[in-house]
Amino acid sequence: MSTVSISHRKVAFDVSAVPRHWNGGDPVLTRFFDALSVHFPEGERFFIQSVRHFQDQVTDSRLRQDIRHFIRQEGQHGIVHDRFNDVMAGQGIDVERVTANLRRFIRTSQKYLPKKYQLAMTAAFEHFTATLGEAMLKEETDMFREADPVMRAMFLWHGVEEVEHKAVAYDLYQTAAGGGYLTRVSALVVAMLMVHAVVAPVFINMLRLDGALRKPGVVLRGLNRLYGRGGILTGMLPEFLAWFRPGFHPWETGMPEKVAAWLEEYGEHGDPMRASAAVYGDAVIQEAA
Ligand SMILES: [Fe+2]
Ligand SMILES: [Fe+2]
Q: What letter would DSSP give residue 140?
């Protein structure tokens, strides 16, 4: 069960002036997050639906409350990412087609997969987003060191909330859905295959549109920062693979220090830009000085 009380924050970000390659001018590091962003609103709607199938079977009042916050948080993530996705549409990215494809894919999966498996998939995706969220708040990963401050604040807010609700779908799967080990393990494998099959072509297409594929050096350097030794995704592997251990629970990684710092700063001012600067931006400024 979660050790923190989850809150729903109705935030908004002015993304109108965000530069095309907002993550340090690096097309690969930018488009990796852009490709995820395009899929978030539809994906998050799927997570909400998967959880709702079992919501009425929950007897624990704390979990019932957590589910309500989970639904509100994911709903707000969708709203915020939709706004940014409109900016990407203005850059010539066919957001509408990508979204329609994903919607069709999700509808087909919902038709054929048992509800319990859909929830296992949701818990697995949530493990990915929470691990990514925790990694965002670790300085060693350098994920947004040179990022546009608005985009960094947007992803940090989303990342923090993913950490906050990291165990909701998992606990629901284990309790109300009576889910077992083998199903949840297979769900993560299937979920990651899906991420690569669905998101990777969009990611590559964005890079092609930017003309980045004509610069193999830029692409290789970017991919190295994602998948290389000490890369953003490689650095997440130990926490990510913990899922395969029988008896795993999302809260075993606890609440990362910087997530707690973000929550404290946000709690004081209610400003995600300020919370982001406090836990990430200011640290960068201090180091540079
Ligand atoms: Fe989310
Ligand atoms: Fe989530």
A: G
Compute, in angstroms, the gap from residue 94 CA to the centroid of ligand 1.
22
Ligand nearest to the CA of 66: 2
Taking a 5 Å cut-off on Cβ, the residues next to ion ligand 2 are 126, 129, 162
Q: How confident is the model at residue 1 (pLDDT cuts 50, 70, 90)?
A: low
Q: Select the more confidently predicted residue: 3 or 210.
A: 210
> Is 21 in contact with 30 (CB distance < 8 Å)?
yes
Distance CA 9, CA 164 (A): 12
CA of 217 to the centre of ligand 2 (A): 34
What would the pLDDT profile of 28-63 be if each residue is shown by its tens digit? 999 999 999 999 999 999 999 999 999 999 999 999
Residue 61 has φ and ψ, to the nearest 5°, of: -70, -35
Query: How many Cα atoms within 13 Å fall on the side-chain side of residue 167?
Result: 21
User: Domain map of the chain by residue range?
Assistant: 27-247, 255-289
The CATH number of the domain covering residues in 27-247: 1.20.1260
pLDDT at 145: 83
Grade residue 137 by pLDDT with cuts at 50, 70 and 90.
Answer: confident
- 97 in Cβ contact with 29 (< 8 Å): no
CA of 213 to the centre of ligand 2 (A): 32
Q: Find the 126 Cα to ligand 2 centroid distance in Å.
A: 5
Pick from 273, 279, 274: nearest CA to 260: 279
> Coil, strand, or helix at residue 23?
strand
Average pLDDT of the chain is 92
The Å distance, Cα 216 to ligand 2 centre, comes to 34
